[in-house]
Specification:
The structure holds two protein chains of two kinds. By secondary structure, chain A is mainly α. Chain A has three domains: 67 residues; 195 residues, no CATH class; 95 residues, no CATH class. Chain A has 17 helices and two strands. In chain A, strands 1-2 form a two-stranded antiparallel ribbon. Chain A is globular. Chain B is α+β, with helices and mostly antiparallel strands. Chain B folds into two domains: 54 residues, no CATH class; 121 residues, Rieske Iron-sulfur Protein. In chain B, the strands form two sheets. In chain B, strands 1, 2, 3, 4, 9, 10 and 11 form a seven-stranded antiparallel sheet that branches. The longest helix of chain B has 29 residues. Chain B is elongated, with a radius of gyration of 36 Å. The chains are: A mainly alpha, B alpha+beta. The interface between A and B is medium-sized, with 34 and 28 residues.
Chain lengths: 428, 207
């Protein structure tokens, strides 16, 4: 099968040319902003230069010069990308963002990251595989999701840092300065009306230009490969790769819902009410960002762009070969314990005896860890929150942590199930 | 001047009536012998339809119950267009060793001829439903494995799971050879390896 297409279609090249011109225009505007608002001629000159660079790209693509991304870069990206590196990079990225938040929320830094991203996206579109996946009508919301989640994570963090600085100086947060009240009518209702009209218009245009991705009538003999859940459930589908359906489909989603309901009862920190702050609610913001951005959005992006036929992992520029063979010989914890560690036969043991190591491990994790945390690193939380609140909080976080723990165990020691009782359809 | 008079009359009438209403249920209590008397029927009727309010609730409840029963009725359709569970899957001589026949996938099974654990040459029918979450895996001839497109579970030609999240092997279906050499697969009977059912002679045909 020949997927490689070094020759870009004329329409695609023109489209990319227009794209690069728009990005150039964005940078010119930013240069203007640097000059006028920030009074920074050096920055302004730099961004004018960047605008020029993008404009050159625009000219090159609009005149159909057949530019494509170098194979060496594609291969490098494909080689670096796998489920492990992808997830680890995402987690490290979040940690870096939280630790060096002052650096990352600087508008110049954020703008630089955005421009690098846009440059890379533009060049990536010259790759056939990448183009096919990105321009699929189902996947358009995910591209929007990447940029909007990035922006709406950046913006509150920036506001939070400004407020944290103000609070440290003993000044009230920015939001407290906006004392003037506005009227529901016309201020709010008019804004809502305009939003409604714009949303409706955008949806109609979207519905007309991007056709609904309908397929042939369902048949059990012709199943789409890969079979993907709706985009908002792809995080859940990724979870199902590591868990039994009972856990990933019923228990963990229930805990997510219960956990979200429980937040107001667990989080009794009155600080941060009505204004952005990070320092005053470090634990809450970090936990939320990890649970939502890493364990939900990042997994949706993984499921949309990087999971191909047979639910194998494919690099962003790797053709979706349905015959790609990835060995995934997974072993249960009971096998590890009895066969490899003790050299004992596993057959003939009852399920309780066989799975005792895993059951003990899970019980220690769920019942032993909360008191340990209360005694040690989360001592101040325990004292402030009291027994019941603390226990619920730790249990919820433990259930959230089950997913990354299971992922790491799968990647490192090919662990399938910690507790494996197929007799009762119970696997963890 | 007329208004207060009218109000007074109504109030008086109400007062006059009230004891009469109260006295009515008190009477049967005094005479326990008349148990199945019509007063009890009147009591039920007056509870359900005694006022407009009660009537409204009664009819509402009745219509809700009727709707519920109507919904339950949908669980028992008049016609069930289910195909018969027994499928005739060609002749025994059609099957080559080590080959997976994809022809009957839309009926929910593969017919496979392969060597089993005891090195016997057998024909068996594997259900196409993944034991993880019920997708239909594909047979990959080059890799000699079944691979599920939903979560990446993998099964050997025997149906035994070896990769991905599937917790147990694919199920085998009842299969038998007719006297004239045809293969009959009965989808209504399943055989699971983890409870030792693959040893059942109904789950395979010896070639």
């Amino acid at each position: 099968m020949e997927y490689e297409s070094h020759h870009l279609s004329a329409a695609m090249q023109t489209g990319l040319g227009v794209y690069f011109f728009l990005v150039a225009l964005m940078n010119a505007a930013f240069a203007h902003y640097c000059y006028r608002q920030r009074q920074d001629p050096v920055q302004s000159a730099i961004w004018l230069g960047v605008a020029l660079l993008f404009a050159v790209h625009g000219v090159a693509f609009i005149t159909h010069m057949d530019l494509v991304m170098p194979e060496a870069i594609k291969e490098l990206v494909n080689d670096v990308m796998n489920p492990v590196s992808y997830f680890v990079i995402a987690v490290l990225g979040l940690v870096a963002f939280l630790v060096w938040r002052r650096f990352f929320t600087d508008p110049i830094v954020a703008w630089t990251i955005l421009q690098v991203g846009l440059l890379f996206s533009g060049w990536s579109m010259t790759d056939y595989t990448f183009q096919q996946i990105i321009t699929k009508p189902d996947n358009v919301p995910i591209v929007m999701l990447i940029f909007s989640v990035g922006f709406f994570t950046w913006l509150p963090m920036r506001q939070a840092i400004i407020n944290d600085d103000r609070l440290a100086r003993g000044e009230p947060p920015l939001e407290k300065l906006e004392e003037d009240k506005v009227l529901v009518w016309p201020d709010l209702v008019y804004t809502e009306l305009i939003c409604m009209v714009i949303c409706t218009f955008a949806l109609i245009v979207w519905a007309i230009t991007l056709k609904a991705p309908l397929e042939q009538p369902a048949s059990s003999s012709r199943i789409p490969n890969p079979s993907k859940a709706p985009w908002y459930f792809l995080g859940l589908q990724e979870m199902l790769v590591y868990f039994d359906p009972w856990m990933a489909g019923v228990v963990l989603p229930t805990f997510i819902i219960i956990g979200l309901i429980a937040i107001p009862y667990i989080d009794f920190n009155v600080k941060g009410n009505g204004y952005y702050t990070f320092v005053e609610r470090k634990f809450a913001v970090s936990t939320f960002l990890f649970g939502f951005v890493v364990l939900w959005v990042v997994l949706i992006v993984l499921g949309t762009f990087l999971r191909g036929p047979n639910w194998n992992f494919f690099g962003p520029f790797e053709p979706w070969d349905p015959h790609k063979s990835v060995p995934l010989n997974n072993v249960n914890l009971s096998d590890y314990f009895w066969l490899y560690l003790l050299g004992d036969a596993i057959e003939g043991k009852g399920w309780l005896a066989r799975e005792a190591p895993g059951i003990i491990l899970i019980l220690v994790y769920l019942l032993g860890l909360p008191p340990l945390l209360a005694k040690t690193i989360m001592r101040s939380y325990f004292i402030r929150m009291g027994f019941i609140r603390f226990f619920i909080l730790v249990t919820l976080i433990q259930f959230m942590a089950l997913l990354p723990i299971k992922m790491v165990l799968r990647w490192t020691i090919n662990l399938k199930y910690i507790v494996f009782i197929p007799e009762y359809f119970f696997n963890i | 001047m007329a208004e207060p008079v009218a109000a007074g009359t109504i109030a008086e009438a109400g007062k006059a009536e009230a004891p009469a209403v109260k006295a009515a249920p008190a009477k049967p209590a005094a005479k326990p012998a008349a148990k199945s008397s019509p007063t009890r029927r009147i009591f039920i009727i007056s509870t359900l339809f005694g006022s407009w309010f009660a009537t409204a609730w009664t009819t509402f409840t009745a219509s809700m119950i009727a709707m519920l029963l109507g919904t339950v009725r949908f669980l028992f359709p008049n016609v069930l267009s289910e195909p018969p569970s027994v499928v005739k899957a060609g002749s025994v001589s059609d099957y080559e060793e080590g080959k997976v026949d994809d022809k009957y996938k839309e009926f929910g099974f593969w017919v496979i001829r392969a060597k089993d654990e005891r090195n016997r040459d057998i024909i068996y029918a594997l259900s196409t439903v993944c034991t993880h979450l019920g997708c239909n895996p594909n047979w990959l001839e080059a890799d000699k494995k079944f691979k599920c497109p939903c979560h990446g579970s993998g099964f050997r030609i025997s149906g035994v799971n070896f990769e991905g999240p599937a917790p147990r092997p694919l199920e085998r279906l009842a299969i038998r050879k007719t006297d004239d050499g045809f293969v009959l697969v009965d989808k209504s009977r399943k055989f699971q390896k983890e409870i030792g059912q693959w040893d059942d002679p109904d789950s395979y045909i010896l070639v």
